[in-house]
């Protein structure tokens, strides 16, 4: 009861404003506390060098620092301070690859005087091979990236903690140490409410956005301030957008606003509030009208406070019932798929795509006709350059064909006797063979015994596992390849398209699950931004790890829609038109469609996972894309700021180091 | 020890084992009575529920079906945490899958709930001509490790319901009067085993 009320408070705009001030003062306190590290009154009880985070899978982007436990009075604080990049190190890195972490990246991950009272648990990982690391999970359910102890010392760290605070080994998992488990629930939720000020270090400052521009941390502070400030005027709002004539989200946000006749006097926060409150119906808008769900006692996060807030919103809107009458879908009307005549018009006489941006926009809003996919996908995936000519592409196909044959011959030449002594090869082949025979076999192209196309799937995947031996084969890859081969109907071309796709999505399959974790974390931040009642619900239901969305993200909804619709969705996603991470907005859009059911039925993790798995085949694709589009536009820079740099499918920067960390033996 | 009346148990059960061993197929056979030659691989995890009547008690299994590939191993603790029972599945036509099963047994012995009822299932028993793991070898291993063992076939349904029944029977509170062989009953009910009227 208490907790729910607190969540409601956090959702209240006035409260949010006061909280903003409060977290401001917390931050001021923090800088006061930074005196803690100085000799007066505080004591460093633990200090460990070479504790490193791996923001991406690239070794060059790892950030080392010093981990400290500092005691002040009876309170214990944890800090992790990245080392200043030494000129040597920086000079070397910028010469070789200019991809090393910038000073800002470094400070982004800094943990400064985190009170241990804000920590829920610490999970210890001690792999047989590779470095030991810990994951610090905050009361909010969010976690800091893994801290790798390059010079050992995890035991000592936990030992020191034990001396100063009460920690308890979890009964469920011997490697999990609970820090505040015994705490009074009221206090715990209070401390979690303060969290945004603490965690946001890694998330608030918006770094590179999808267009690659860099906005300063100050700027995003300002945006946040504005977000909380309900009185921000329209001129400021649209003024900010005028600077960004190129912003594709612009027409759309205005369109969304017009749709609500709310063009005047609306700041971004109000818009996102509308998303939270006006769009919370998993079912028909009519059904919703009949139920007074603001009074429903079962709904967490829709307590009297919400009614109050709702009144605030409606005082601006012309008709208080308008939200209920609105159709469920928000984004632009979907268009018909790109057709041959249009496609031809995008090409100049030599076959170059003149305006790739316009092409991507066109495909984003309508997809492509099936017979064009074979051509169009190669551009979207990055296998073909937009400014290549017909002749160049034909030449490329020939070159790539022979290159493919060479890689393929590497495993084809392995004799049976050789294979006997090559366990890794046999295992890998075994994995692939087990999977291809159960991939999309109900599709006529792959149907029936001894289907040659199934053998082609196998050959391509095995060749890929030689092309990218470090990544190898992982379950889920055959799901990606199957539609590609279905479209390309050509072994070598399918291979290279798959290679291009894996350039972006390979990290989904990393052994350390880093790519998946960063996407799930970004998703949780997006839901927090775009639907805080749902976020609060998932928080109290202990579902903030978002593992129930694992399948959606790992294979980009491949199992959720019928075959042809998957292809449509993929080409929409691959345009990267509104965002490289549009798939995450898709996740938010689907969750929002069913939020009422999820919260109303008080689903716990098990039930939620079952529910989400069973949604497969029942999600309205066009409607969801439109919702996601609107969400993406409304989230704007704040949405971008939720997604840490390097989150797949952002394109990685090539380095000399291996792309795929080999902490463990690879299958 | 009243076992008469409303004796309803909810038990969380997790399926572990190598990819392609037939975990999903076993669950589908048990829950829906179906079998698919081309059952697709499991991504992440799937959840099913099925209730069994056992004399005068009912056991509602909440079944977690996990992804088998080694690479997803790190996610498994999330699913076996707090489970009252586990079925470790291997494929009798694959020695690798049997080795993998042994690893799972070790991991559960180290990390899992000590009261967990653990079954070893040698699946694809219909493929006798391709057998690579003998029944004796597996039975000996199971006995040494306090597991109960059955060979199953999701395809022909042999022993599928039986293995779930046997687990239900061995759950600490399902039949408190009889102490099933190889099981040590403790005062403490297994974690996550929610009992509504027995042991009261
Ligand atoms: N002949 C035979 N085939 C089976 C049996 N059980 C499963 N299979 C087949 O084995 C393959 C793999 O079965 P799954 O149930 O998907 O295996 P799994 O353990 O769930 O695999 P992952 O989800 O990848 O971990 C499928 O093609 C099934 O049809 C069985 O009892 N007999
Ligand atoms: Mg499965």
Automatic annotation (TrEMBL), chain A:
Residues 1-41, 210-242 are annotated as: Disordered. Acts as a GTPase activating protein for RAB7A. Does not act on RAB4, RAB5 or RAB6. This is TBC1 domain family member 15. Interacts with non-phosphorylated form of RAB8A; phosphorylation of RAB8A at 'Thr-72' disrupts this interaction. Interacts with ARMC12. GO terms for cellular component: cytoplasm. It comes from Elaeis guineensis var. tenera (Oil palm). Residues 367-577 form the Rab-GAP TBC domain. Its main location: cytoplasm. GO terms for molecular function: GTPase activator activity. The lineage of its organism: Eukaryota, Viridiplantae, Streptophyta, Embryophyta, Tracheophyta.
From TrEMBL, chain B:
It comes from the Eukaryota. Keywords: GTP-binding, Lipoprotein, Membrane, Nucleotide-binding, Prenylation, Protein transport, Transport. GO terms for molecular function: GTP binding; GTPase activity. InterPro entries: P-loop_NTPase, Small_GTP-bd, Small_GTPase. The keyword Electron transport does not apply. It is a lipid-anchor. One of its GO terms (biological process) is protein transport. GO terms for cellular component: cytoplasm; endomembrane system. It is found in: Endomembrane system. Belongs to the small GTPase superfamily. Rab family. This is Ras-related protein RHN1 isoform X1. The lineage of its organism: Eukaryota, Viridiplantae, Streptophyta, Embryophyta, Tracheophyta.
């Amino acid at each position: 009861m208490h907790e729910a009320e607190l969540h409601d408070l956090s959702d209240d705009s006035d409260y949010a404003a006061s909280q903003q001030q409060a977290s401001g003062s917390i931050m001021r306190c923090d800088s006061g506390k930074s005196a803690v590290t100085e000799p007066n009154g505080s004591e460093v009880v633990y200090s460990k060098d070479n504790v490193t985070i791996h923001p991406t899978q690239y070794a060059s982007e790892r950030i080392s620092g010093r981990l400290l436990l500092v005691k002040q009075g009876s309170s214990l604080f944890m800090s992790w301070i990245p080392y200043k990049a030494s000129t040597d190190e920086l000079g070397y890195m910028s010469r070789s690859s200019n991809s090393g972490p910038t000073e800002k990246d470094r400070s982004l991950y800094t943990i400064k005087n985190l009170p241990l009272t804000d920590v829920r648990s610490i999970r210890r990982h001690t792999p047989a091979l590779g470095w030991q690391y810990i994951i610090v999970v905050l009361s909010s359910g969010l976690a800091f990236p893994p801290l790798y102890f390059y010079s050992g010392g995890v035991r000592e760290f936990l030992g020191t903690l034990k001396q100063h605070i009460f920690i308890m080994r979890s009964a469920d998992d011997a490697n999990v140490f609970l820090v505040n488990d015994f705490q009074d629930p009221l206090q715990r939720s209070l401390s979690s409410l303060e969290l945004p000020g603490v965690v946001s270090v890694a998330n608030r400052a918006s770094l590179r956005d999808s267009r690659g521009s860099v906005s300063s941390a100050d700027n995003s502070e300002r945006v946040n301030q504005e977000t909380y400030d309900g009185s921000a005027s329209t001129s400021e709002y649209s003024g900010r957008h005028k600077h960004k004539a190129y912003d594709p989200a612009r027409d759309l946000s205005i369109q969304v606003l017009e749709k609500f006749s709310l063009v005047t006097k609306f700041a971004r926060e109000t818009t996102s509030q509308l998303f939270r409150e006006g769009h919370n119906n998993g079912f028909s808008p009519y059904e919703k009208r009949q139920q007074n769900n603001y009074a429903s006692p079962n709904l967490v996060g829709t307590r009297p406070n919400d009614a109050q807030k709702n009144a605030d919103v409606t005082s601006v809107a012309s008709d208080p019932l308008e939200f209920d009458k609105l159709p469920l879908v928000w984004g632009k009307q979907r268009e018909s798929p790109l057709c041959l005549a249009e496609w031809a018009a995008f090409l100049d006489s030599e076959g170059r795509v003149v305006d790739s941006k316009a092409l991507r926009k066109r495909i984003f809003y309508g997809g492509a006709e099936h017979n064009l996919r074979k051509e169009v996908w190669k551009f979207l995936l990055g296998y073909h350059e937009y400014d290549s000519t017909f002749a160049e592409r034909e030449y490329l196909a020939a070159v790539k064909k022979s290159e493919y044959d060479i890689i393929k011959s590497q495993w084809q030449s392995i004799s049976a006797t050789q294979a006997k002594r090559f366990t890794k090869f046999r295992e890998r082949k075994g994995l692939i063979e087990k999977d291809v025979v159960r991939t999309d076999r109900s599709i006529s192209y792959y149907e029936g015994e001894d289907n040659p196309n199934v053998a082609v799937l196998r050959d391509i995947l095995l060749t890929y596992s030689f092309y990218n031996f470090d990544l190898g084969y992982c379950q889920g890859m055959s799901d990606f390849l199957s539609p590609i081969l279905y479209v390309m109907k050509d072994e070598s071309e399918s291979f290279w398209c798959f290679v291009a796709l894996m350039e972006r999505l390979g990290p989904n399959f990393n052994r350390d699950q880093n790519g998946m974790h960063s996407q799930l974390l970004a998703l949780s931040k997006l839901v927090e931004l775009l639907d805080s009642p749902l976020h609060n619900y998932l928080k109290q239901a202990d579902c903030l790890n978002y593992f129930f969305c694992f399948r959606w993200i790992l294979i980009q909804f491949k199992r959720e829609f019928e075959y042809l619709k998957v292809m449509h969705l993929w080409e929409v996603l691959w345009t990267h038109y509104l965002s490289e991470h549009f798939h995450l907005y898709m996740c938010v859009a689907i969750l929002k469609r069913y939020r009422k059911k999820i919260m109303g039925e008080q689903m716990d993790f098990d039930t939620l996972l079952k529910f989400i798995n069973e949604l497969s085949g029942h999600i309205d694709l066009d409607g969801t894309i439109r919702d996601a589009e609107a969400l993406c536009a409304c989230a704007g820079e704040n949405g971008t700021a939720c997604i840490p740099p390097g989150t797949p499918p952002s394109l990685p920067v090539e380095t000399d180091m291996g792309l795929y960390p080999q902490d463990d033996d690879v299958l | 020890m009243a076992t008469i009346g409303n004796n309803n148990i909810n038990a969380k059960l997790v399926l572990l084992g190598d990819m392609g061993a037939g975990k999903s197929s076993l669950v589908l056979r048990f829950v829906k009575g179906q079998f698919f030659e081309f059952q697709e691989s499991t991504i992440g995890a799937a959840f099913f529920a099925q209730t069994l009547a056992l004399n005068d008690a009912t056991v509602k299994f909440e079944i977690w079906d996990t992804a088998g590939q080694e690479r997803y191993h790190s996610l498994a603790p999330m699913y076996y945490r707090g489970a009252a029972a586990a079925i470790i599945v291997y494929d009798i036509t694959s020695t690798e899958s049997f080795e993998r099963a042994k690893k799972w047994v070790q991991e559960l012995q180290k990390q899992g709930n000590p009261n967990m009822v653990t079954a070893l299932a040698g699946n694809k028993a219909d493929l006798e001509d391709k057998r690579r793991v003998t029944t004796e070898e597996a039975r000996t291993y199971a006995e040494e490790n306090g597991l109960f063992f059955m060979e199953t076939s999701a395809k022909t349904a042999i022993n599928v319901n039986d293995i779930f029944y046997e687990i239900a029977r061995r759950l600490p509170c399902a039949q408190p009067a009889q102490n099933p062989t190889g099981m040590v009953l403790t005062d403490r009910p297994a974690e996550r085993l929610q009992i509504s009227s027995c042991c009261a």
